[in-house]
Amino acid sequence: MTLNTIRALVALLPCLALAGCVMPPKPYKKPASAVESAPVKTGAFWWGTSTASFQNEDRGVAPDSPFYFKTDWDIFAEEGHIPPRGDEATFSWTHFDKDLAALKQLGVNHYRFGIEWGRVEPQPGVFNEAAIRQYIAMARKLKAAGIEPVVTLWHFTFPAWLYDSKKKSQSGFLNPEVESHWKEYVTRIVKALSPYVKVWVPQNEPNGALYIGYFGGHWPPGLLATPGSLKKATNVSVAMFREASGIIKNQNPKAIVMGIYSLPNWTRAFGQDPTRAVYNMMQHQNFDHLDRVADTIDLIGVNYYYSQVASARRFIIRPTGEKSSAYTQNGWLIDPEGLHAVLVTVSKRYGKPMVISENGIGTQSEQKKIRYFREHVNQMRRAMEDGADLRGYFPWTLTDNYEWAEGYAANFGLTSFNKKDMKLTLEPAGRWFRNFIRANPEP
Ligand code: BGC
Fold first, then answer.
1. Which of 214, 266, 271, 310 could make an S-S bridge to 233, C-beta 3.0–4.6 Å?
2. Residue 166 sits in which domain range?
3. Ligand 1 pocket by C-beta < 6 Å: which residues?
């Protein structure tokens, strides 16, 4: 156990006591000010897939261009904390058409991609209009192909200018300027893309990113064992989320806002968490942020990958390795029934329609991947029979990409990418998904 881990474990105690997170979360209560709205209409079942700007887009801007940009993740990698992403990723910026061709082959009716904030605003207040036009073109091409674009405004990355290696406690969500810049960025993007984009995601998994980056130390800004920062960053992220929901609805009252959360199925083991304190804390991680924005969203996006025993050590030390057939390359325990449990819990807690916005497995075995999807779709069906209102299913992800602190070490893709001819080819799991959705327009 490293010194940092010990520090983090010690710091858990005051955090638990101060934040009240040793107690189970209270039931969700809609704020009195919440506007009553009719349940959202989403039409035919959404079969989709997703990517993220930083995981897929190549840089596509020369270092001497006034629009050259970096993100906080680039700098964090340069500091040696995580593997670098490099300038290429999966070439989804300069070669988006190869992604589009693969999406058409898959036959999906929805596709989620992200906007890279640093790309469109490479310097504070300086906007790259050509980049915004390119995002518009992507949305239009998708629509022309009968694929509804779903746009994420923040998927873990901030422009590098909101990150300061020497002042981590003033970086990202803790940067004093972040809220005003976010307002301007979101206003511009929503205005520009609204004619073509109806479905918006203000932030992807803010709950997970906040815990990992502002308390666990693994992601930017790399704050470790800092309960005060976690609390403050959460407040700012919530305010930014609510601001974005308002901007989206003001622009188009018929727009659909989806809040996407990382929702593992936490389980209990007496020996590792005798007082249930960690289990309760993990429930807070799942629900606290969502509780504070749920009244502003139409759909809850459930990102589900695995079950995990709640233990302080497990929270600090990230699991790794496909130890046996029961695990994924990321060291996650495969548990399809956990998806059912999460869907039923979320459905009861919020009574809102849901989309499985991410579900997938990092593995080199296509057979294991197909089995994973099949079993999870079956559990989704079971949850629907039990009353959960499911509107869509998005396997993660279109093609193997940059898996954050794990670098390029995880193979989640439905397709393989050949850099020589710049083409994506459906892998067996992709062909399975294509055939499955052809045969099952509704699940
Ligand atoms: C994220 C993705 C990530 C996936 C697999 C989710 O946490 O939204 O960006 O690649 O899980 O780890």
1. 214
2. 3-25+44-439
3. 52, 55, 204-205, 208, 262, 303, 358, 396, 403
